[in-house]
Amino acid sequence: MNILFTCAGRRNYLIDYFRSALGEDGGRILAVDASHTSPAIQEADKAFLLPYVNDPSYLPKLLNLCEQEEINAIISLNDLELPLLAGHKKEFAQAGTAVLVSDPEVIDICFDKWKTDRFFSRLGIRSPATWLTLEEAKTAVAEGRLSFPVVVKPRWGTASIGIEFPEDMRELELAYELVRHKLMRTFLADVSSTDEQHAVMIQQYLPGKEYGLDVVNDLHGNYQATVVKQKLAMRAGETDKAVVVDNPSLVAIGEKIGRELKHIVNLDCDFFEHQGACYGLEMNPRFGGGYPFSHVAGLDLPAAIVSWLHARPAADDVFSVRFDTVSAKCDRLVYVDAAEKSLVYEPERK
Amino acid sequence: MNILFTCAGRRNYLIDYFRSALGEDGGRILAVDASHTSPAIQEADKAFLLPYVNDPSYLPKLLNLCEQEEINAIISLNDLELPLLAGHKKEFAQAGTAVLVSDPEVIDICFDKWKTDRFFSRLGIRSPATWLTLEEAKTAVAEGRLSFPVVVKPRWGTASIGIEFPEDMRELELAYELVRHKLMRTFLADVSSTDEQHAVMIQQYLPGKEYGLDVVNDLHGNYQATVVKQKLAMRAGETDKAVVVDNPSLVAIGEKIGRELKHIVNLDCDFFEHQGACYGLEMNPRFGGGYPFSHVAGLDLPAAIVSWLHARPAADDVFSVRFDTVSAKCDRLVYVDAAEKSLVYEPERK
Description:
The structure is a homodimer.
Chain A: E1 2-6, H1 12-22, E2 28-33, H2 39-43, E3 46-49, H3 58-68, E4 73-76, H4 82-86, H5 89-94, E5 98-99, H6 104-111, H7 113-122, E6 130-131, H8 134-142, E7 150-154, H9 169-183, H10 189-192, E8 200-204, E9 209-217, E10 223-235, E11 238-245, H11 248-261, E12 266-274, E13 277-284, H12 291-295, H13 301-309, E14 326-336
Parallel strand pairs in A: 1-2, 1-4, 2-3, 4-5
Antiparallel strand pairs in A: 6-8, 7-8, 9-10, 9-12, 10-11, 11-14, 12-13
C-alpha cells in the first residue's frame, strides 16, 4: 500500500499518522511538492519535486509518477489542486490510483463561500447574513439589518487571505475596496474573475465560541462520524489550540452535511455558536489544519482510510474520541537535506 | 541554575535548547504565561500562570515568584513585556535574578521603527526611504522619489500587524487610512498615541533577498558574534524556512550594530539585499522566531548564556555555524494537561 501526499508542504504530522496506519500491512508514504525545502519532503519515505499545480506538465507528470511508484491513493492538501484532481479521477483510477478527493460539484460548493451559504440555507442550517455588494450592505446598515462589526472576506479564498473586521462605516468602505483591489491581482484573480462584481463578501459578525468539525465519510461518500472541536486560538489562518467537545447539536449538523454533500473522506467545517444557536461559516473538502486536534483525541481517519483501501471495514474504535482533550501546536525544526535538490521528477521513458 | 521564560507561549524549542545547555551543571527550566494552554507551559520543568503583562499585579507577582523559585535569569519573549522588565532590573537583581533584557533606551530604538531608521542612518547603514505622513509620501511619488510598490506598516508594531504592500496610489490611500484606523483601536494604540499623527510608516519597497541576523552580545552588552540567515519563507510574521549563509558584509554590519547598541544577549535583525547593497529594516531586542535556524546550524547561545551566568567564558565553538544549513519549521501537537489549570500563581505569605 503506497500513499502519496501532493502539495505536501508542512503537514508532517499527517505523514506520521498515515505511517502508523500502514502499520503491519506495510507500505510507503510518498510526498510531492514544488519546493525541495518542504518539511514533508524531508520526512516521507520517498519524495519528488513536481512543477507548480498550474503548470501544464503537472498533471501528466503526477499521473506518470503514480504508475511508476504504484501509488494506491492520493491525498491532496492544496485548495487550488483539488478541482484539478477531482476532474481527472478516471485517468488515475486506470493507473490503479484512488484519488481521495471529492467530486467537482462538492469542491465548487466549498470553494465558493456564497454557494456554501446557499447550501447551508437549503439544509436549514443557520449562517450569518451575507451581502455581495458594498451598496447592498450599506443599505442593510441604514435599515438596521446589519450592524458593526462586520466581516469582509474574499468569496473564493484560502487560508484567510484578506479577511477584515471593520467596526464602522468608513472602515467598511476602506476594507471592502482594499480587499477587492488586492484580490484582483492575487493568484485567486483567475477564479474571482468569473464574477468579479461579486467577489467580496460582507457578513454580519456575531460573537461566540468558534468550532471546527471533522465530518468523515468513507471512500464512496457514505457518512461515518463527526468530531467537534472548540477553537481556542488561531494562527496563520489555521487552528492553533483546540479542545474536543461533546456537542450533539453540531454532530447532528455534521451528519446532515455529510449525508447531503456526499464528500469523500474528510470535510473540515467552521461553525460558531451565538446565543445558543449554531451558524455555519465555511467548508473545506480535505484534511484541515484542525485535524490533528481530533487525531490526538482518538479519531484515526488514516487507519480507517487504509482499511477501506484494503476493502476492509474500519475498526470499531477509529471514530471514538476522548472529550475535553486539549492540545496546542508548536514549532519543530526539520533539517533540509541539500541533496533533495536532485529529486526533480522526470518521467521514465517507456 | 534556574532559568525562567516569561510570556513563554509556543517557543518550546527554546526550552529544549536551554535544558540541553544546563546539561551537567543541572538546573530547571521554568515558564510563566497568562494561558494554561500555552505549549511551553506544558513542557517546562515547572510552570505558573500569571496575569497579563499589563495587569498591575503582574510585576510584583513575577518578582515574588523569582525569589520563591530562586530564579537565576529571566528571558522574555514578548515585545510588550520588554520595556517593563527593562525598567525594573535592579529590583530583580536584588532578588538574585538577572533580567536578560536590554536597557530601556535600546528597546525604545528597536520598538520605534522610525528611531531604528535614524539609528541605521547614524551608523551609515542603508535603509529604505521612509515617510511618516501620507501627504509627504504622495509628494514623493509625484516628484519621482518614491515608486510603487511601497510598504505601509505601523511605526510601533509586532509580528507584522497590519503590514500592506500597495501597488498604486489608490491602494496606498486605502491601505494607509485602514492601517491607521485599525491601529488606533488595537493594543498598540497606547504606544502610538504618543505621536498619533506619525504612527504609520510608508517605505519604498525594494525587491531582493531577505535576511535575518542574530547579533549576539554577552550579558554586559559586549559584542560576540553575528549569524546571518537568508529567509526562504515567512509564516504568521515569523521566519518559516531559512538557510544560514556566509555573508561577510552582513556580519560586519551586525558587529557595527552590536558594538554601538550594546544590547543584552540576542538582537534579531531584518535586512535585505537590493542590487548588491544591504538595507536594514527592523531590530528586535530578544530571541526572534528565526533563532532556531541559527541554532540547528551550530550557534549555541543558550550554552553561552549558561556559561556567562556561571561567570565562565563561553566555550570556543558556541558561535561557530555550518554554512548552507537549510531548515524548515513544521507543527507538532502538545497535549495540554487540564490539571495545569491549578497553576495560577499566588505568592506565599511571608
